[in-house]
């Protein structure tokens, strides 16, 4: 049984006993035995381990983990320190500096260089950095799609939708925005923008100001803002 060390343990107990998850578990056992799979099996659930259900302020959705050596560690868009930020993360940093950075150009440039590619600090502040598929074969993007992870992560989103305390959902790109159907309760907030990939970032992700909007919403709700930088 997976252990999160927070309130997800009780909330997701039945999910880990469900038929689809038991099939997924058997699939993953074989995949980790026969192939290189990312992230490490110890890091698969880091997003949920770091952000307890009751503490989540905002949700950022990714699709599946990075499939390159040393990149994925269980948080969407994040890579370990010492790994070069992938292009989407670079664009996320650009938007953060433009949105919540200082007007001083030199200071903003310095802040951009100092930003950590490991987004663990965001997760510890209550940002759920959730990929909708939690594992992938090395070098084979989307190779674990359709095996059951989507059912699991849809359940996570649905459980957050049931929460009375508002959640800010930051949905970037068509895949993430496809989850809008799971977010039906009116107390929650949905921010939409194109994906930060270089293929789409200039179509509206850059300039979306989601980071300042999220903080403004949090402050209006009486919550502390996220330290994005």
Unreliable runs: none
Rg over C-alpha atoms, rounded to the nearest angstrom: 17 Å
> What amount of the residues lies in strands?
5-15%
Q: What's the SSE pattern?
A: HHEHEHHHEEHEHEH
Number of strands: 6
Mean pLDDT: 94
Q: Largest sheet, described in full?
A: 4 strands, parallel
**Strand order in space, largest sheet:** 3-2-5-6
The total count of helices amounts to 9
Alpha-beta content class = alpha/beta
DSSP helix fraction: 25-40%
Distance between the termini: 36 Å
Please state the overall shape, judged from the principal axes of the Cα atoms.
globular
Write the layout of secondary structure elements.
Layout: H1 8-11, H2 19-34, E1 37-38, H3 46-50, E2 58-62, H4 87-100, H5 105-114, H6 120-124, E3 127-131, E4 136-137, H7 149-161, E5 168-172, H8 173-177, E6 189-193, H9 210-220
Parallel strand pairs: 2-3, 2-5, 5-6
Antiparallel strand pairs: 1-4
Helix pairs in contact: 4-5
Walk me through what this model shows.
- With 229 residues, the chain is α/β, with parallel strands linked by helices.
- The chain is built from nine helices and six strands.
- The chain has a four-stranded parallel β-sheet.
- β5, α8 and β6 form a beta-alpha-beta unit.
- α4 runs antiparallel to α5 (105-114).
- The radius of gyration is 17 Å and the shape is globular.
- The relative contact order is 0.17.
- The mean pLDDT is 94.
What key attributes describe this structure?
single chain, 229 residues, alpha/beta, 4-stranded parallel sheet, two-stranded antiparallel sheet, 9 helices, globular
